[in-house]
Design brief:
By secondary structure, the chain is mostly helical. It contains 10 helices and 6 strands; from the N terminus they run H-H-E-H-H-E-H-H-H-E-E-H-E-E-H-H. The chain is elongated and about 95 Å long. The two termini are 25 Å apart.
Amino acid sequence: MSRATVRRAWLAWAGVLMLAPSLAAASDPASLRRGERMFIQQCAACHSLRYLRYSTVQQDLGLSAQEMQDDLQRFQARPDAAMLTPMTAAIAKLGFAKMPPDLSLEVAVRGRSWVRQYLGSFYLDPSSPQGWNNPLLPNVAMPDPFWRQQGIRGGDGHGQPGAWLQPGELKPEAFSRQLDDLVDFLQYAATPDALKRRSLGPWVLLFLAVFTGLAYLLKRAWWRELRETGRSD
């Protein structure tokens, strides 16, 4: 192995190690906590996260004991329980004609951008059973959960959102940030172990870099010893 090759290999490892901290910080803990609050307040009455436990969320996101206690009291749940909606199948059938879907893997299945666009694309549609519609899921049974914050839009007559009929309580920029926080949390819910993987990633890369260097030094020592042995013979 030439010195130029070794130099290029070390430069590549250095680039990976410099990138690793940014990967570890890709999930903003503050955004995840805000998204969890928004999910509890706006979504959890109808939708479950059956693969996520309250205790896991508290540990991963650093929720306070009071915040966790409020969530548990609100849904009459235990700390080790999964985040299940209190809505029964009978109530869901009366209100929506079917049970609202579990959202544990929604971002993993549909993608972050699709979920983000879907949540912000509701419009009024008197012909729809719920009075709302969405171009990404036509005739969806779900009403707009954020009409107070975002405002109300009418339809354009072609299955797309039209003009604004009523402004929301939040400015568009503030509502957009809220949706980003919620989608961040749903992305975390789909792969909660990603936080730990990202925190361990830089250390794994550092170990591999050190191991590669030691392996190269050991290889040089072995070959030097073999060459010296060959000369003596």
